[in-house]
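Protein Record: Sequence and Backbone Structure Tokens
======================================================

Structure line: whole-number tokens from a learned vocabulary of local backbone shapes, matched to residues.

Purpose: to set a sequence beside its fold so the mapping can be learned.

___
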Amino acid sequence: MQTTVRAPITLDGVGLHSGRPARLTIRPAVADHGVWFKRTDIRLGDTLVPAIWDSVERSPLCTRIVNAAGVAVQTIEHVMAALAGCGVHNALIEIDGPEVPILDGSAAPFVRAILDRGLRRLPEPVRALEVLAPVEIRTAKGWARLSPARGLSMRFHIDFDDAAIGTQEKTLDLSNGTFVRELSDSRTFCRQADVDAMHAQGLALGGTLENAVVVEGDRVLSPGGLRHADEAVRHKMLDALGDLALAGKPLLGHYEGFRAGHSMTNLLLHELFRNPDAFRMVEIDEDTRARLPGVNIQPQEIPAVA
């Protein structure tokens, strides 16, 4: 059955790009509500923004959604990954500004808060999007593909000049809590040169060595180093799950990304929905449910750093 959070969950922090204080509250919602954001700092007009693929205003640095009135929320990918990875289908997310708090740069604080509060079952079955035929997006920089699979799985490849990251590739079956155990604590990362460039443009004003992995050549500048030797590719997979959650339903398919990012994953969803023969809506039975993220997770499975 569909789920929502059992009670409201509030988290405080700063926005990664704005540097402004940010408070977010995840509230329970009814069945078939989906995930919506509500800007509580705006008093007049339409303050609700749907977390859905065709509300995305593509950006290379984060995922930003905008409603018809121009009201926007950005850097939503980590909380969306946490909701998808914990099996939460419906929520109203209130936020007092334009950006989700970055917290420690991963999805783990959101995951811990969700699992500590617990989920409530709702009286409607889960419906998922089953991929029936491959769809693909290619650019000069890389490519992304969705193809048929029994559950949700992912393969991701990255390639960076800095030796601290280099070339990394990882494949995971995301069923049965794999996201929580393997991906949720992996932090956003960047090169020191990128930080300097973003600061010069008035971006990443809330970024610190405590909420991002910063590298320079073969050195990791963030205190404590890496949480995983392949933390960078794990974080890319985390981001991809959050961006795929904007399909609006759980996905049954295999995602592959080669040097892909937020914009490419969103373009891939556009391509999927542009091809109605490439997918179908299915009602989830118990056997299929076991192959989705967010099943049978226990709080003690969250990595200790969270």
